[in-house]
Amino acid sequence: MQELIKQIRDSARQLLEEGKVHCVIGYRQGSIPMRAQPYFAYTPEEADNLTWSCFCTHNLAKYLIGRKEPSAIVAQGCVTRNIAGLIQENQVKRENIFILGLNSPGMIDHRRVQARLPGKIIHEVLEVSDHLVISGPGFEEKFLKRDVKRDNCYTCTNRNPVIYDQLIGEKGEETGGGNIDKVAAPWEGLGSDERWKRFQETFKECIRCYACRDACPLCYCRECFVDESRPQWCGKTVDESDVYAFHILRAFHCAGRCTDCGACESACPVGIKMRRLTSKIEKDIREMYGFTPGLDTEAIPPLSVYRPDDSEEFMRK
Amino acid sequence: MLEKIVFKDKLDGLLDKLGREYGLFAPVKDGIHTVWTAVFKAGDLDWNFTNTDLSPKGFLFPQTECMLVFENDPGSTEGMILKQPEPEDRPKALFNIRPCDAKAFAVLDLVFEQDPEKPDVYWKEKRGKTLLLGLACNNPCPACFCTSVNCGPHHTDGLDILMQDLGDRLLLTPVSPRAEGFISDLDHASEKDIKLASELEQKAVGMIKGRVNMENIQAGSIIDVFEHSAWERLHESCINCGTCTFYCPTCHCFDIQDETSGVYGRRVRNWDTCMSPLFTLHASGHNPRGGKLARFRQRFMHKFKYMPFRLKGALGCVGCGRCTQKCPVNIDVRHVVNKINNN
């Protein structure tokens, strides 16, 4: 990890010194345990604030949207897939960005760590090779990182960067080891009543802060449908119908574009597993259209085009 | 001597007494979350929590609150009918509320009841009926900084009773007159226990390492703080979600909507957030806070400059640290305030 951090800083410093980019978007050490903060380095000196860890859960691709000056970005596999998607959707110009690509170690779900330490106040968490060393008043614990990863990192299909200008470190394991198709649709086999019940249980605690939407690199609409007021499509309350309408519509807006980066679940302050919707939709997209988003900057997502020979199985039922 | 002592396993008497008048709620763990939950007996209580995920502000200022219901049937001779919604059945007692959250209620009193002639009736009605039994913090978390913002781990502002956790027993200090009746029959506390509580307070204060400095923010003019060059860099990573505002125990902005179905309807107010562009969007299409920087700045200006300016020095922050812990991009309020405080 230290070697990767050094390489990120060296590359960032060089890019800034040579004036190749205006800014390097990466992460810096968070202010509380198990957090990394998105960070923008503008000077060679600031490059030394950049870091890399298994807590880099926020997807930085979104920060590229609307940046006029050339920018570099630290990007692991899923983030590069979102960058590819943003290039395809004309939100980012390829020539305007410099991708410092690197293999993702699989990011940690800090809630999972806390869940194993009920009632304990965590003061410090250190990464020591494949372990985390967690300490606080009166305790020290050691967990294997692979036991406390985010759900999406277990089933990652592209840990290595898909597109990049410079590789940081070396390419590593391509997948997280889990089979996404096996876990993507946990409700698929259930009857509609049971499915609805699970759906309600999953989303009922939502407080509508929109952290999922605002963290998502796909959600860049200038005005989100929930914010439209003339007409207002969606109610503003935390009543079930308004909450569910938001989540269902958002998931469908992401169909065929979602890279399963997990930024939504990491951002959610409540801990809602919204991937239960999005990963099912992506499974459908793979099965119906044979399409996986973010692997090719030229590939048009299937729901962005009309084709007379589109799969229409659902209409025949 | 007002202080009383009660053993934790003998709390049922007090809870029964409270339960006769109030619906009792307390922080209880639900998985990794700590949530406000209805409790009935001593065994339901949790003594090993830091603080609840969501603050208790929703008890007095619900995220979605019906203000009135209406009926407007053109075929009816009754005309437009407006009705108050059904009031809550029982007043509530919040047991083990943390001092920072009680302080937040005291701050919100200044907002919602700033004009005694025209208080916010929805707030005032519930606030007047709600009893707050606070549990002092002995183990503050790494994001806390209450001691920098007119509060502290054993503070009593806003509370009716302060309870200090001495291990197997609680030291109870009445703060408001209405609390005294509930603890009058408990044993008097010993000098030794009072001293122990005071030592625990000193220890807790010492554990709070986070500090914010506000001298320059308070001394500077509003326009100087508003135009501080540091906002540009501070706001960069903010994704403009509403997490900080919804988790904040003192954020209190709301939006009012009428919802109709046929001839029936209701008026609801919902928490709103200054992070959202819609919050300030005018009907004309103009948005006075159209940019992310302006929205980010507003939240901190409101808490650390506008509120003290308008409310006799009261800050819109109690140092609970929820915003820092919940922020998806780790924006740390302490860092922001300290940067803005640097001239």
List keywords for this structure.
heterodimer; A: 317 residues; three-stranded antiparallel sheet; B: 343 residues; alpha+beta; eight-stranded mixed sheet; 12 strands
Short description:
The complex is a heterodimer of chains A (317) and B (343). Chain A has 317 residues and is α/β, with parallel strands linked by helices.
Q: Look at the structure and give the mean pLDDT of chain A.
A: 95
Average per-residue pLDDT of chain B, rounded, comes to 95
Oligomer: heterodimer
Task: List how many beta strands of chain A DSSP finds.
Answer: 9
CA gyration radius of chain B, whole angstroms: 22 Å
Biggest interface, chains and residue tallies: A-B, 44 and 46 residues
H/E series of chain B, N to C? EHEEHEEEHHEEEHEHHHHHEEHHH
Question: How many strands of chain B?
Answer: 12
Cα distance, first to last residue of chain B? 48 Å
Written as H for each helix and E for each strand, in order along the chain, the element string of chain A is HEEEEHEHEEEHEHHHHHHH
Q: Strand order, biggest sheet of chain B?
A: 3-2-6-7-8-9-1-10
**Fraction of helical residues of chain A:** 25-40%
Strand percentage of chain A, roughly? 5-15%
Output the radius of gyration of chain A: 20 Å
| Share of residues in strands of chain B | 15-25%
Major pleated sheet of chain B:
8 strands, mixed
